[in-house]
Design a protein that fits this description.
This protein is of the alpha+beta class. The chain contains eight helices and eight strands; from the N terminus they run βββαβααβαααββαβα. A four-stranded antiparallel sheet has the order 2-3-1-4, sandwiched between helices. A four-stranded antiparallel sheet has the order 6-7-5-8. The mean pLDDT is 90.
């Protein structure tokens, strides 16, 4: 691990995630300005992905978050990765082994084996606001009638009606979000090892779907094709983005936790 700080800078060890030994991070640059080179701290069959970090300098900038993800997402194409979602700072290389790798060696090794050959794909969809509102008004006569009544009167005279209208539209969009999420899962989940859908209770008003899929490498192309088909089906109504292959941010914790329990099976069956 190479640092590029001045002698007055206090440096520590930044950890991106855990990989099996034998992974080659050569050429990868991590967080920092200028970016630090990424290296390995090995322990038996495990290794931590690390780089030097200046602890008395800025940390967690947008550039750092992008660099953190880039390191992990680059390596997932070559083997299993247990990512730290936001990274961790440890005082030195010895502490990486003593405080991170050694105490969790068995759980990490078994979780890496569970995740071997997989990567995360994240599907995000946002409603086209004008289109979905037109759909709501076309499908719900009661909402359309209230919308017309409110539009015909001065704003100060229709405060409570406007509040009620907003609530009715929000409830209708929430129902459509549930239906759209279900459709996305029905089309894509058969190609995935595991699925996690974000709860819709506190979803932004324009969210149509937000779900993560753990997909075996042999199904990556088919999964992408299925997502493209869904995007075409929803074109003009929902804007879809598929991110991946990514490190398994939403699944690694479950894999490790399952392997901490004696005799636990794989968390996704």
């Amino acid at each position: 691990m190479n640092g590029r700080g001045t002698p007055t800078e206090e440096r520590a060890c930044y950890v991106y995630g855990i990989v099996p030994t034998g992974v080659d991070p050569s050429g990868l640059e991590g967080i920092g300005d200028p970016p630090a080179r990424v290296g390995l701290v090995p322990h038996r069959g495990l290794a931590a992905l690390v780089s030097a970090v200046v602890v008395n300098g800025p940390l967690g900038t947008a550039a750092d978050l992008r660099a953190h993800a880039r390191v992990l997402d680059t390596l997932v194409a070559h083997g299993p990765v247990l990512p730290m979602r936001f990274g961790g700072v440890v005082r030195d290389l010895g502490a990486v082994v003593d405080e991170l790798l050694a105490p969790h060696e068995d759980a990490f090794l078994r979780a890496l084996e569970d995740l071997r050959g997989t990567a995360q794909f994240t599907l995000r969809g946002a409603y086209e606001e004008e289109h979905v509102l037109r759909q709501v008004l076309a499908d719900r006569e009661d909402i359309a009638r209230l919308h017309t009544d409110v539009a015909a009167l001065p704003q100060e005279a229709t405060y409570y009606e406007r509040v009620r209208l907003g609530e009715m539209i929000a409830l209708e969009i929430a129902a459509r979000r549930e239906a759209d999420t279900l459709e996305a899962l029905e089309r894509l989940a058969p190609l995935a090892v595991a699925v996690k859908a974000s709860p819709s209770a506190d979803a932004p008003a324009d969210r149509a779907v937000s779900a993560s899929f753990l997909v075996g490498k042999g199904d990556w192309d088919a999964f992408g094709t299925a997502a493209e088909g869904l995007a075409r089906r929803w074109a003009g109504r929902v804007g879809l983005r598929l991110l991946g292959p990514l490190a398994p941010y939403d699944f690694a914790g479950d894999a490790v936790e399952a392997r901490r329990t004696e005799g636990a099976g794989r968390p996704w069956g």
